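Risk register update: the risk of archive-format incompatibility is retired. Evidence:
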Amino acid sequence: MTTGHCALPVLNGHTQLQSGQLRGDRTTKATEQGSDQTSKASRTSRTSRTSRTSRASKASKASKASKATAETMDDVRTVKLEGCMTAAEAGDWVAKVGAEEVRVVVGGAVDEVLIHVVSMCSGITDIILANCSALTNASLYAIARCCPSLKRLDLCNSGLPSADTLAALIAGCPLVVDIDVTCCTLIKDDAVEMMVAGWQLERLVLTGCEDVSSRGVEAIAAAGAQLKVLSLSRIAQVYDDGLIAIAAGCPQLTSLMLQWCAFFTDVGLLAIVAGCPRLTRLCLDRCTRLTPAGIAGLVGLTDLVELDLTDCRSQATDDALAALAAGSPQLEQLLLHNCTAVTDAGIEAIAGGCTQLEVLDLWGCTLVTDTGAAALFDLARLTRVSLDATKISSAMKTAVEGHCTAMAAGMATAGSA
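Archived output:
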């Protein structure tokens, strides 16, 4: 069987699939007993010819199907084995071709499936292997050999890659601009340095790579001039010096995730505000060393549309929110989950200033009452809201949720007009 540009073993399951298409109808037995020998021979001869013709016809169709499949697979750009934990779950892989999805059934273990796929598809640009914990480095070596056009690689929760495998990927896939290694425990400072030096990354997700230190953060800053999306969430060693370096070295950033980074202060945050003016998305979930002044300083991000202040319990005060609302009319999503210092006054300020708000999370804002909730009716674009674990009454919750439903329906109608 002819493969693509990469010479790798063909998966046995695929060979079995093709052979299954080649099975012809079995020759039928001579029908009634007691027929003369000449009639039997005649019928047997006709049946044999019919069977041979049927097998030849099916073989021709299988050959054409195989050729069509190969051509289709040459067009494959995105391969997804997302969440494949076992061989049974890996039995189906989905490849996206333009606006269509092509499903090919193959057998074998996860590594075997992926190696087969990349050997057959010469133009792959995106590979998503999130949560594929059964994968080994063998698959990544295959990708390195067979996917020179690769631009996006998602290894979230895969536990890979090792340093040697990463070096092979960088050498074999030089066009990668987007990599997600969330919770890949083998990723340390050396690996970060290799990635940012070897690839011109635009998106780098290091969420949960707990062994990355300030050295890794500084390496990103030194080589991140083109970086647009960066997640350092759940990395303990993110300090002010690191964020100051990021602000100076990554001016193109549009999305920065700092969830559970508890050791930087207003100094680092305000450096980001000054150095990364294009930010549209910022996550400060549980950044507990910030102060209300730091939150108020976010007003300098005039393109910010998504802000996560989850668990900023003492930092997200009414005054900080009032300052933010006064200068951030463009905000579309604001998460104040468990911000226990927020009162009705803060919500009224948000409703009065953030007129484009579509999503608002007030879960656990225990000081917010019906008075604050009533201000939400002024938000003409509000479509999603969370009001649980507050002092807002059930009747008011129902009314606000009804308002959101009506706003969503109106926006949908306007969008389809």
